[in-house]
Amino acid sequence: MTLKTKELYADISLFLVAVFWGVTFLPMAKALHTNGVFTILFWRFLIAFLLMLIISFKFIKKADKNSIKHGAILGLFLFMGFAVQTFALKYIPSSTVAFITGLNVVFVPFVVFVFFAKKIAIYSYIGALLSAFGLYFLSNTELGFTKGELLSVICALAYTLQIVLTSEFVKKSETMVLVSVQFLVVAILSLFCAVVFESSAIPVVNFDFITAVLVTSIFATVIAFYVQTKAQEFTSPIKTSLIFTFEPVTAGIVGYFIGKENISQTQIMGAFAILFGIIISEIGSYKKHSH
């Protein structure tokens, strides 16, 4: 299999991950009516960690310090993204939080260039800017500069670092260990925050909670994060962040057809802008490999 074919398969896999994550918005929103964010996150990542432990037992026995350290760092940034995003929602509308968080698509190329001195193709910049415009129209947001916006920017930076560092760490670590440790760190930190901010991590067990936790832990966590980590061996962090902008598009489609939510023409235009951004980046990578 050629390097280009591997990259294409990796990109398709990441696209499916973005779809998985988009689909989980609706069950998560329903579960949040009766349970706290950190309680749900704790059970989601605890179950995901235990499943990874069963699946990858023979790999876990080969755990090395590097993989554990790298997994812990990724887990810290992943949790930071979830936690800061949660607090941002207290101050500004969810649409604004979603837009600013999605701006990691713009941050990633600059972080890669500044910290890893890697040249960025013009196609990546065009794709990133198109997706950023698309996110703005999709989220239908009004921007200011309050505590909420600042927290959302920190959230976007946390997700940016998680994506960029995954590309670096996966080359130096055992993938199963890297992913497992990441889940464990998020579970522990979520437990701490659930006890501090939500009084306990004991959930209100109902249909919505069980559905959300099972769907997110199996599909949106174990499968999705393993696929993301593995795929980033063969594709760039810039394309990863671009493809992940399809997550809110999927959430919008599911919300419209299943949740009976309204979608405006502006939001549809935003979705198409994101799609074009991804396509331009993909075309750019083909041109690069064809030279």
Provide structural commentary.
With 291 residues, the protein is mainly alpha-helical. 80% of the residues lie in helices and 0% in strands. It holds the Pfam family EamA. Its main location: membrane.
List keywords for this structure.
single chain, 291 residues, mainly alpha
Compact summary:
With 291 residues, the protein is an all-alpha fold.
> What is the CA-based Rg, rounded?
18 Å
* Shape estimate: globular
Oligomeric grouping of the chains: single chain
Low-pLDDT stretches: none
Q: β content, as a range?
A: under 5%
Tell me the total number of β-strands. 0
Please tally the helical runs, counting DSSP H or I stretches of 4 or more residues: 14
Estimated structural class:
mainly alpha
InterPro entries: Diverse_Substrate_Transporter (IPR051258), EamA_dom (IPR000620), EmrE-like (IPR037185)
Pfam families: EamA
Subcellular location: Cell membrane
Keywords: Cell membrane, Membrane, Transmembrane, Transmembrane helix
List strands and helices in order, with pairings.
Elements: H1 3-23, H2 25-31, H3 37-55, H4 57-60, H5 65-88, H6 94-102, H7 104-116, H8 122-139, H9 147-169, H10 175-198, H11 207-231, H12 237-244, H13 246-257, H14 265-290
Helix pairs in contact: 1-11, 1-12, 1-13, 2-11, 3-10, 3-11, 5-9, 5-10, 6-8, 6-9, 7-9, 7-12, 8-14, 9-12, 10-11
